[in-house]
TrEMBL record:
Signal peptide: none annotated. The chain crosses the membrane at residues 12-32, 52-69, 81-102, 144-164, 170-187, 194-213, 269-294, 306-332, 344-365. The gene is ftsW. This is Probable peptidoglycan glycosyltransferase FtsW. It is an enzyme of class 2 (transferase). It is found in: Cell membrane. It comes from Clostridium neuense. Pathway: Cell wall biogenesis; peptidoglycan biosynthesis. Its EC number is 2.4.99.28.
Length: 370
C-alpha cells in the first residue's frame, strides 16, 4: 500500500496570480507613460521614447518566467539552499561596494544590459533564513537569549550591509519585516517592544538625524512648501501632480509633472504620475490591488500546513506590503522622502524580477495542502 502524502498539489491561488499580473501590466504601461517624454528628449537614452519600456518589459518577462518556474518548485527545497542564498547575498552586498557610487549611493552592480541591486535579494534572503531558523528551533524564540537575540542580530547584519550602501530605507524594510516574522513565529510582545523602544527606534532617529540630506528631508516633510525650491521640491511637485489629477485624471500620457518637474518620475514617485493621469480612481484601484494581494498572502499563511510555509508567506507578503505602504506614504507626504520603490510598478529590473520570484514561492505555498 502506498504511503499517504503529507502534502499534495492543488490549484494555486488564482486571485493572487491575477492581481500580481495586473499590477505588472499596469506598471509596464505607467513606466512608459512616465518616462517617454524625458527619454525622447535625452541623448543619454538615445532619444528613444521606449527606452525604459523595453528594459522594464524585458525584466517583467524574465520575472514572470521565474515566477512560473518557482511556482512549480516545492518551497521546502529552499531549506536545502538557505546556506547558499546567505553566501551569495553577502558576497553581492560586499561586491557592490567596489563600484562607483550613483547619486551618492552604491546600490548597483553593472551587468551588460542590466543593473543588479543586491539589496533586492537581501530582503528575501532574510525571510528565508529566519523562516528556517524559527521553524527549526520552535518555541525557543520565546526566550530572549539566545534565540530571539540571535534572530535579531542576523536581521541587523543584513540590514547593516544594506545601510553601508547608503540605503537606510531598504535597511529599515528588512528590520520591520524581520520583526513581523519573529512576532508571527512566537516571539513575546514584551521582547519586541523592548527592542523597538531601546534599540530600533533610537537607532532609526540617530541614523536619520546624523546625515545632512536626511535632516533636510525631515524638514521638508514638516513643511514642504517652505522649502519648495530646495529640500521639498520633489514632494511639492508630487502633491501638485496628485492634486491636478482630480477624480478621473488628465488621461493616460497627459501628465505635465513628468516633463522635468518630478526628477525620474518613473522611479519612486511613479504613484504621483498615476494620480495625475488616472486620478483618484486610479490611485484607489492600485491601492485596492495591493490590499487584495496582502489579504491573499495572509490567507495563504494561515492555511499553510507547516510553520515554515507560514513564515515564508508572512515574510514575502510583508516585504511587498511594507514597501507599498512606505511608497504611497512618501508620495502623499505622510512621511519623509525615502528611496523605496512601489512593488511591480516602479521602474527597476532587480525589483520586479525578485518580487516576482518571491510571488512564485508564495503561489507554491498556496498550492500545498494536507
Amino acid at each position: 500500500m502506498a504511503k499517504p502524502k503529507l502534502f499534495q498539489k492543488v490549484e494555486v491561488d488564482f486571485i493572487l496570480l491575477a492581481t500580481v499580473l495586473l499590477l505588472v501590466a499596469i506598471g509596464v504601461v505607467m513606466v512608459y507613460s512616465a518616462s517617454s517624454y524625458s527619454a525622447l528628449n535625452s541623448s543619454q537614452y538615445k532619444n528613444d521614447d521606449m527606452f525604459f519600456l523595453k528594459k522594464q518589459g524585458f525584466a517583467a518577462v524574465v520575472g514572470l518566467i521565474a515566477l512560473f518556474t518557482m511556482e512549480k518548485i516545492d518551497y521546502h527545497k529552499l531549506k536545502k539552499v538557505t546556506g547558499i542564498i546567505i553566501v551569495i547575498t553577502v558576497i553581492l552586498l560586499l561586491v557592490v561596494l567596489m563600484f562607483p557610487a550613483i547619486n551618492g549611493a552604491k546600490r548597483w552592480i553593472p551587468i551588460p544590459g542590466f543593473n543588479l541591486q543586491p539589496s533586492e535579494i537581501a530582503k528575501y534572503a532574510v525571510v528565508v533564513v529566519l523562516a528556517k531558523a524559527i521553524e527549526k528551533n520552535g518555541n525557543r524564540i520565546k526566550k530572549f537569549f539566545p534565540n530571539f537575540l540571535v534572530y535579531l542580530v542576523v536581521a541587523a547584519f543584513f540590514a547593516g550591509l544594506v545601510y553601508i550602501e547608503h540605503n537606510l530605507s531598504i535597511a529599515t524594510v528588512i528590520m520591520v519585516v524581520s520583526i513581523i516574522i519573529m512576532f508571527v513565529g512566537g516571539a513575546k510582545i514584551k521582547h519586541i517592544a523592548s527592542v523597538l523602544a531601546c534599540g530600533v527606534i533610537p537607532l532609526g532617529i540617530f541614523f536619520t538625524m546624523s546625515v545632512g540630506y536626511r535632516q533636510t528631508r525631515f524638514l521638508a516633510f514638516q513643511n514642504p512648501w517652505k522649502y519648495s525650491q530646495s529640500y521639498g521640491y520633489q514632494t511639492c511637485q508630487s502633491l501638485l501632480a496628485l492634486g491636478s489629477g482630480g477624480l478621473k485624471g488628465l488621461g493616460l500620457g497627459q501628465s505635465r509633472q513628468k516633463c522635468y518637474y518630478i526628477p525620474e518620475p518613473y522611479n519612486d514617485f511613479i504613484f504621483s504620475i498615476i494620480g495625475e493621469e488616472l486620478g483618484l480612481i486610479g490611485c484607489v484601484f492600485i491601492i485596492m490591488l495591493f490590499l487584495i494581494l496582502i489579504q491573499r498572502g495572509i490567507r495563504i499563511a494561515m492555511r499553510s500546513k507547516d510553520m515554515y510555509g507560514t513564515l515564508l508567506a508572512v515574510g514575502i507578503t510583508s516585504v511587498i506590503a511594507v514597501q507599498a505602504i512606505i511608497n504611497v506614504a512618501v508620495v502623499t507626504n505622510s512621511m519623509p522622502v525615502t528611496g523605496v520603490p512601489l512593488p511591480f510598478i516602479s521602474y527597476g529590473g532587480s525589483s520586479i524580477v525578485f518580487n516576482l520570484i518571491a510571488v512564485g514561492v508564495l503561489l507554491n505555498i498556496s498550492s500545498q495542502t494536507s
